[in-house]
Amino acid sequence: VVAADDGVMPQTAEAISHAQAAEVPIIVAINKMDLPAADPTTVRANLTQHNIVVEELGGDVSSVEISALKGDGIDDLLELISLTAQVEELTANPKAAAIGTVIESQLEVGRGPTATVIVQRGTLSRGDALVAGAVSGRVRAMFDENGQPVKTAGPSAPVLLMGWDDVPSAGDMFEVVKNEKVARQMASDAADQIRSQELTVPTATERLEGLLEQLRTADHSELNVILRADAHGSLEAIRDAVVKIGREDAKVQIIQGTVGAITANDVMLAEASQAVIYGFNVRPDSAARRAAKDQGIDIRTFTIIYELLDDLESLLVGQLAPDEVESFLGVADVRATFRAPRYGTIAGSFVTEGEINRNARARLVRDGVVIYDGRIASLRRFKDDVATVATGFECGIGLENFRDIKEGDTIESYQVREVART
Fold this sequence. Notes:
Layout: E1 2-3, H1 10-22, E2 27-31, H2 40-47, E3 62-65, H3 74-87, E4 99-108, E5 112-121, E6 124-125, E7 129-132, E8 135-143, E9 149-150, E10 152-153, E11 158-164, E12 173-177, H4 180-200, H5 204-217, E13 221-229, H6 232-245, E14 250-259, H7 264-273, E15 275-280, H8 286-295, E16 299-302, H9 305-316, E17 324-340, E18 344-357, E19 361-366, E20 369-381, E21 384-385, E22 388-390, E23 394-399, E24 410-418
Parallel strand pairs: 1-2, 2-3, 13-14, 13-15, 15-16
Antiparallel strand pairs: 4-5, 4-12, 5-11, 6-10, 7-8, 7-12, 8-9, 8-11, 17-18, 17-24, 18-22, 18-23, 19-20, 19-24, 20-21, 20-23
Helix pairs in contact: 1-7, 6-9, 7-8
């Protein structure tokens, strides 16, 4: 969905990247056609920069103009979706045991665990035993999109289900099974498998070493990269330089390049496409850091372009990790600033994750962009100098030779250790 007045925004480009990586059919809905500033012609032209060529420009991607506010064009969009499904032969057997996807889940007062699901095959009926991941249940009640109770739901129908033993996870597949005993056993087996996987998820270093081994042994190597930068100028400069790095037998493929902080969506795309995330003068947000740790995704950040390019070239030819490895320690939000004669600007901060270490390195991040990278000159709790400040505590932070600190900034604490190349 693209706004007719705004065009292709960063989140739209991100959605396009995900769809292209998944190799699924794309339909472009140009929304907000009711606005005076609507310009669908420019939108269609802008889409070509993202390898989306609509039929009006000689391509094979269908598009339709709509107004979600007034309802204009919605019937045309639904007809286009139906036609695409027919062309792609996306069919489902309504007589089979139901299978579908959990779209959303929650714990509701008076209802217990509920989940909104969409049926993708078969027909779901009240009383069916089912399992979704590590959660089982029996359908006690179903409600359609209008909140009305229904007894059955066929392919493509979204329904709210009651009767789960626990809250299932959004994104999990559900399936109807013979009875509740079978459902509980399958859920138990899935829970055991999840626990086992949690113990064996590769670290970012292990995943990277595996990728490097593939690059070393492949006849033709290709390194997938997700690139984030602080500005469009930086992004384009890196793109142009990356083209020169590639060789006939080894190429860098930038599957997504955008401006701004590294997000959890970048991590999801990296996991799906076996990519390495590179950031120039930007940092991952807290959700991205957690997701990267859970999935073992390598995030590599730089403040000097040639160092980023050198690292990228080293990976491409299959060399092992760089001499320096960064370890994240903690992050603090700047909630106020004040002046101190000895240290200049002091950041009145609250530690939200990990710990701030007086002897570690520090970087100041503003709107996802690295403003300062250096050392902590002063770390205090009230009037006392301290070595560390843990999560949940306030502190005053002074940065070495830096005064441009503003409320809303974040200060990250990290260490750099040297490792031998192998």
